[in-house]
C-alpha cells in the first residue's frame, strides 16, 4: 500500500463516527417516493448537507419529485464529472420482518441496518464525503463536478428523461459516475458499463361478470385463468426462449471484448445459491453471466385470480390478471417489443386486455474508452486489487438518460455489499463498504484530475507543433 493510499484510508477510518453521524441524519429522514412520504423534506435536508460541503446546490422541480442539483465548477472548459444518485427509498413493508426500526439506523455486526442504507443513501453519502475528503487534502478540485440526485428512482425515474432533455446544457459532462447497486458476490470491486432496460405490462382476461359456482356453470363459462395459461404457453417455451415474433431482432451480439470480460468474472455457484436463497443453482460461470447481463428475460411477476385461501372455494373466477416484466438488452426498444407482444396477444386471443405499465431503455458504454481505463485504475488503487468489469448491470437503472440523451459515457460502481437486501426488510450496508466508498470516490476524483491535466498537456503540445 503506497503512502498516499494508506494515508487516505487511515484518514477516512479515523473519522468513521463523524461520517456515520452524517449518514444517519439522512437515513432517519423518510423519503418513500411510491407513497410521497417525506420526499420534499429529504430533498431540502440533502440540499443543506451539500451546501455545508461547499457545493452550490438548488432544488429543481419536475412534474413529480424534485431533483437536488449541485455543482462545483473549477473552469467551464475543464473536465466535468457528473455524479448521479437517488434520495428516495422503497416502502419498508413488511414491518414485522425488520429486526429494528426501518428508519432508525442500527449497527449490528459491523453493518448499518436501515431503509436506504444501501439503496441509495449510503452510497450517495459516500460520494459526497469522498469529495469532502478530497477538499480536506487539496486546495481545490482538479475537475468540475455536477450532482444529480433524483427522488423517483424507486418508481421508475418517470420524470428523469424529461429533466435531462430540458437541461442538456446545464448537465453537460465528460463522464457520468454512479454508485448504486450491489458489489460482486466475491467481494471484489466491480465496474458496470451499462444496464439492462425493462418493460412492464399486465394481461387481463375476463369471463363472466361475477364468480360462478364451478359445478352449476362448469363446462359452460370460460375460465379466464385457463385463457391466460393457454396464452402464456405460446409466449415462452420450456427452455426459456421467448416465442414472440421479432422479440430478439435487435439484440446486439456479444463482442469478443464482452466475452473476454465475462470470462474474467469469478463464479461460485454454491456461494451465489446460498446468497440468493436457491441452493440448487447449477450452471457454469460464462452461462450465468451471459444470461444475467447480455440476454433479455421474460418474467412473470405475479398472477391473481379466484380463491387461494385455506380450504376450498369451488368457483369459476370472473377475472384473471398476470403481471410481466421483461429485462431488455441493447439495442432492444421497449416500445417496439411491447407492440410485438401486443400483436402476438391479439393474434392468439383478442379478448385479452393488454395494459402498458412502464419501461426503461437499455444502455451500454464501450470498455475501451480512456475514461473507463482511468476510473478502472483509480478503483484498482483504492482497493488494492484490479476491479472486475461487467458489460451490463443485470437489473435496470435509468443509465440511458446519460448515454442516449446526454450522449455521455457512464460508469456504475456499486459500493454496497452483495447481500445488502435492498428493497427487502433488514436492508443494510457494511460499514467497511461505506467507508471504502468514500476512499474510492477520493481516488476517482484524483485520477480524473490527472487524466484531465494530461489530456490538456497533450492537446497543447499538438497545437504547438
From TrEMBL:
Keywords: Hydrolase, Metal-binding, Protease. InterPro entries: Cyt/Met_Dipeptidase, Peptidase_M20, Peptidase_M20_dimer. It comes from the Bacteria. Residues 194-351 form the Peptidase M20 dimerisation domain. Gene3D superfamilies: 3.30.70.360, Zn peptidases. PANTHER family: BETA-ALA-HIS DIPEPTIDASE (PTHR43270), DI- AND TRIPEPTIDASE DUG2-RELATED (PTHR43270:SF8). NCBIfam families: PRK06446.1, PRK09104.1. This is M20/M25/M40 family metallo-hydrolase. It comes from Bacillus seohaeanensis.
Amino acid at each position: 500500500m503506497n503512502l498516499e493510499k494508506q494515508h487516505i484510508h487511515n484518514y477516512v477510518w479515523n473519522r468513521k463516527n463523524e461520517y456515520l453521524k452524517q449518514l444517519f441524519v439522512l437515513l432517519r429522514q423518510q423519503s418513500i417516493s411510491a407513497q410521497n412520504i417525506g420526499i420534499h423534506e429529504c430533498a431540502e435536508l440533502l440540499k443543506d448537507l451539500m451546501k455545508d460541503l461547499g457545493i452550490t446546490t438548488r432544488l429543481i422541480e419536475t412534474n413529480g419529485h424534485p431533483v437536488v442539483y449541485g455543482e462545483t465548477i473549477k473552469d467551464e472548459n475543464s473536465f466535468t464529472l457528473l455524479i448521479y444518485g437517488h434520495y428516495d427509498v422503497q416502502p419498508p413493508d413488511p414491518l414485522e420482518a425488520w429486526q429494528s426500526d426501518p428508519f432508525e439506523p442500527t449497527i449490528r455486526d459491523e453493518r448499518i441496518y436501515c431503509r436506504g442504507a444501501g439503496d441509495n443513501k449510503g452510497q450517495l453519502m459516500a460520494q459526497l464525503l469522498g469529495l469532502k475528503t478530497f477538499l480536506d487534502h487539496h486546495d481545490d478540485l482538479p475537475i468540475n463536478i455536477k450532482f444529480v440526485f433524483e427522488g423517483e428512482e424507486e418508481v421508475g425515474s418517470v420524470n428523469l428523461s424529461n429533466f435531462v432533455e430540458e437541461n442538456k446544457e446545464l448537465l453537460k459532462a465528460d463522464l457520468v459516475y454512479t454508485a448504486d447497486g450491489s458489489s460482486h458476490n466475491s467481494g471484489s470491486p466491480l465496474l458496470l458499463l451499462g444496464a439492462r432496460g425493462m418493460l412492464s405490462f399486465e394481461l387481463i382476461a375476463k369471463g363472466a361478470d361475477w364468480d360462478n359456482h364451478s359445478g352449476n356453470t362448469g363446462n359452460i363459462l370460460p375460465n379466464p385463468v385457463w385463457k391466460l395459461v393457454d396464452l402464456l404457453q405460446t409466449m415462452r417455451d420450456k427452455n426459456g426462449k421467448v416465442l414472440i415474433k421479432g422479440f430478439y431482432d435487435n439484440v446486439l451480439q456479444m463482442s469478443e471484448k464482452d466475452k473476454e470480460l465475462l470470462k474474467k468474472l469469478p463464479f461460485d455457484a454454491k456461494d451465489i445459491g446460498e446468497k440468493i436463497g436457491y441452493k440448487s443453482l447449477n450452471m457454469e460461470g460464462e452461462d450465468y453471466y451471459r444470461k444475467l447481463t447480455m440476454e433479455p428475460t421474460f418474467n412473470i411477476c405475479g398472477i391473481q385470480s379466484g380463491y387461494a385461501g385455506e380450504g376450498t372455494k369451488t368457483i369459476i373466477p370472473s377475472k384473471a390478471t398476470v403481471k410481466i416484466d421483461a429485462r431488455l438488452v441493447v439495442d432492444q426498444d421497449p416500445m417496439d417489443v411491447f407492440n410485438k407482444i401486443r400483436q402476438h396477444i391479439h393474434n392468439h386471443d383478442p379478448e385479452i386486455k393488454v395494459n402498458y405499465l412502464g419501461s426503461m431503455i437499455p444502455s451500454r458504454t464501450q470498455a475501451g474508452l480512456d475514461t473507463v481505463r482511468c476510473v478502472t485504475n483509480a478503483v484498482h488503487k483504492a482497493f488494492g486489487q484490479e476491479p472486475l468489469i461487467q458489460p451490463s448491470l443485470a437489473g435496470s437503472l435509468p443509465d440511458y438518460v446519460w448515454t442516449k440523451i446526454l450522449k455521455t459515457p457512464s460508469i456504475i460502481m456499486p459500493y454496497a455489499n452483495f447481500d445488502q437486501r435492498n428493497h427487502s426488510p433488514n436492508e443494510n450496508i457494511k460499514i467497511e463498504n461505506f467507508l471504502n466508498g468514500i476512499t474510492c470516490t477520493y481516488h476517482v476524483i484524483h485520477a480524473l484530475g490527472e487524466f484531465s491535466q494530461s489530456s490538456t498537456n497533450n492537446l497543447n503540445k499538438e497545437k504547438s507543433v
